[in-house]
Amino acid sequence: MSKALLCPCEDVTTEEVDHAIAKGFKDVESVKRYTGFGTGMCQGKQCLTAVARHLCQQKAIAPAQVVPFTPRPPLFPTELSHWASLPLDPTEAPPQGVPPALGLSSHALRPTEPVPSRAKIVIIGGGVMGLSLAWHLAGQGETDVVVLEKGYLCAGASGRNGGGVRMQWGTRTNIALAKRSIQIMKGFARELGINVWLRQGGYLFLARTEQIAKRLEASARLHHEHGVKTQLLTPDAAREVVPQLDIAGVKLAAFNKDDGVIFPWPFVWGYAQGCVQKGVKVETFTSVTGFTQSGGKVTSVKTDRGDIACDTVVLATGAWSPPLAAMLGVKLPNEPHRHEICSSEPLKPFLGPLVSVLDSGLYFSQSMRGEIVGGMGDPLEPAQMRLGSTSRFLARYGRAITELMPNLSRLKILRQWSGPYDVTPDNSPILGRTPGLENLLQLSGFVGHGFMMAPAVTERMARWMATGESDELFERFNLQRFADGRLEREDMIIG
Ligand SMILES: Cc1cc2nc3c(=O)[nH]c(=O)nc-3n(C[C@H](O)[C@H](O)[C@H](O)COP(=O)(O)OP(=O)(O)OC[C@H]3O[C@@H](n4cnc5c(N)ncnc54)[C@H](O)[C@@H]3O)c2cc1C
Description:
The chain is of the alpha+beta class and 495 residues long. It has a domain at 5-69: Arc Repressor Mutant, subunit A (Orthogonal Bundle), CATH 1.10.10.1100. It has 14 helices and 21 strands. It has helices spanning 14-22, 28-35, 48-57, 80-84, 128-139, 172-192, 210-225, 235-241, 264-277, 321-326, 391-404, 450-467, 473-476, 480-484; strands at 5-7, 12-13, 78-79, 118-124, 145-148, 164-165, 203-207, 231-233, 252-256, 260-261, 281-283, 288-294, 297-303, 306-315, 335-346, 354-357, 362-366, 371-376, 412-423, 430-434, 437-444. The strands form four sheets. A nine-stranded mixed beta sheet has the order 3-19-15-18-17-16-7-9-8. Strands 4, 5, 11, 12, 13, 14, 20 and 21 form an eight-stranded mixed beta sheet that branches. A hairpin with a 4-residue loop joins β1 (5-7) and β2 (12-13). α6 (172-192) crosses α12 (450-467). The longest helix is centred in the middle third of the chain and has 21 residues, at 172-192. The N and C termini lie far apart (48 Å). It binds flavin-adenine dinucleotide (FAD). Flavin-adenine dinucleotide is lined by residues 102-103, 124-130, 148-151, 155-158, 160-164, 287-288, 316-320, 324, 339, 341, 375, 419-421, 444, 446, 448-452.
């Protein structure tokens, strides 16, 4: 059997691109994510034109609709030792990012037909939150639902994250939610027919200070009460889990073997495809531009493809939520913070767990494709809706990861990107009703851990919405708590 390669690095054939088209992935960004073309050593320099031409030849898109994928730095695959040796002023603020170029209303792929004129429930935001809520609502028999997404699927934080899933949390609620999410994730392929590459290699937290060591000890006690078998390890014992670690300065480690990583993109697509199969409408490249309201209720959602009258609106726009809420006169306390992340050339599988130094916010894991995917928060990053990548990040990350794993110093970084953390004053989400606008529901503020919370939180939210049964989650975590001073603090935050 012959095969025609479009992307030699990643072995992507014409048949695979045709398969992506048949699945509805027709724009270059989505086909890149679905097939993996352009993500290998040539960084897309050789294959982008070939794939774009093939999409046009197959009439998936017209030539005028070809929008190339966003180029990702670095310019060439570059070793971590190089990044680690860059001069770095730890007190200097990171260079300003760029405003996200997502879902411009002039996007070539924006459908020309209007959106439905009415729906019972409109969910704004087609990230993991909006789509998983729509999926669970359909499971409750609610299919008169429209999801509005201003970009392509995976355009927001849901397509830009590290895919880490862990039960090691600092509050009972998050432990319980994460446990349930991981249970749902295990059945995802069976239920939604797509492989999300869940790999339970564990999470290994490292503490370099007494304060963080105490936090690991306290949360491990809580884990045991909830049946999560977190082990507290000496630095030497941590080396038995990851033998390549340089444990100098490490005081304590915490390891739960049942934590792990997933591949975020198929997770988002799986929910989207499942929704569509159940009759939910998922409208991509469709921006919400305003609302009408009357009598303390939102009556319709305005989009760049027309207005939708509705009974209920769910704001699931992650870090973009505050400006949308402001259109309705609602003030949300969430702040967007750029978080940078990168991916390396592939290595043979050697790293079991996701490793995180809780003191510095460094984290990294090995994906099923062999890449080392990791990031590190920057305490000097200001609150702003800006994305883009910096060499400062790679310098900080390069130093931190090669200090901990010196044998990675020759590893080459292939791609870096960033996404917005959706940060709230207590690091916990904003859920449920909005004071003054009863039919506006909040579903945002998941900081840097919303991916792993989405399945469990939206399962409960769909039940709460469809049945009217009370659920303390949507009282305790409501927007009103900030005005009441009832904070729900979570401190096991990476980054
Ligand atoms: C670098 C990084 C690493 C992370 N690592 C992890 C991790 O390891 N594990 C984990 O669980 N979580 C992680 N997270 C967090 C996780 O990605 C998010 O919490 C989660 O994806 C939030 O999902 P969401 O649906 O709320 O938001 P998003 O995925 O951001 O979706 C919101 C959507 O709303 C759309 N939108 C905005 N404005 C409009 C409008 N006007 N009209 C229509 N649509 C609009 C946006 O385009 C976007 O797609 C990470 C995040 C980042 C940035």
